Amino acid sequence: MTGWGGVIAAYGHRLPVTSDTPIITLGEGNTPLIPAPHLSALVEREVLLKFEGANPTGSFKDRGMTVAVSKAVEEGAAAVACASTGNTSASAAAYAARAGIGCVVVLPAGKVALGKLAQAVRHGARIVTVSGSFDDALAITIALSRRHGVALVNSINPYRIAGQQSVAWEVADALGRAPAVHALPVGNAGNITATWLGYRAVGLAPAMWGFQAAGAAPIVEGHPVARPETIATAIRIGNPASWQGAVAARDESGGRITAVSDEQILAAYDLLATREGLLVEPASAAGVAGVLANRSVLPDGVVVCTLTGHGLKDPDTAIAGMGIPEPVAATPEAVAEVLGW
Length: 341
Ligand code: F0G
Hints:
six-stranded mixed β-sheet; binds ligand F0G
């Protein structure tokens, strides 16, 4: 690979890999840290957006998947398996295809955005949908992968958490210090856990601000949510696997984990698209929604928000209520008439 060689090439010295580890990479990481002038003016802080949609499969999951699939291959696994709200399955399917091993994904039926399904299907994963939640799918996948000896690549796999720390290292490298606040959405809670561990590993300590969707906010409420519901399907999770890691990130960093409503998420989603020029998926806007909702308690200094996944993942939400115009004659006059020119 020319230029950037992916997360393991860049940060292998901090990762559980050796010279014997076959590196399965798609060139993940090195995502842009984009200034957000409109948001910055709104919250009166410098806000920078870590655009994880620029990863090869369109989400932050690739950072951990390169490590998890490389280790699975090193350990001789014939296949990987995961439960997913969509992005983990898209990433697992792509890295498994690259490695030439099998991939099984277990998904909550009817609750995975179209683009993510398209990825898993086209990369050749075996897909099972269950009439249940992500939490049900994860419990099933854990049980079956033990029985069948395939490598589980959900974020309870420590290699996933290891690789996902790299987002913090990139922010630290770019800023030369910690931001005051690092905000992000919280679903299964692997990412807030990993981002915090990444900062800690290099001696930095931003306040970690995590945001759950109000209908799927077990950490905020202090108990699992049996039937989580939110427009942000990626974080529609009632019993996060990395619950303790998220609480540790919050408490050790002097941060917060609170809830944002679907309305607040969609308002931030819209603001990112129309004012900052960035299309993200709804879950990815939860961190920005949280910063806006909590702006009165922002400390001084730079605010970094992880935008976890690309908006093209979820075209249905992007287009909902927008309306595609009916065609007119293919003449300048007809088009000018529509435009009122
Ligand atoms: N944002 C997006 C776009 C996600 O896909 C996820 C998780 C999160 C945020 C939350 O991250 O789980 O580490 O707290 N998606 C998982 C999946 C659950 O299966 O793709 P988390």
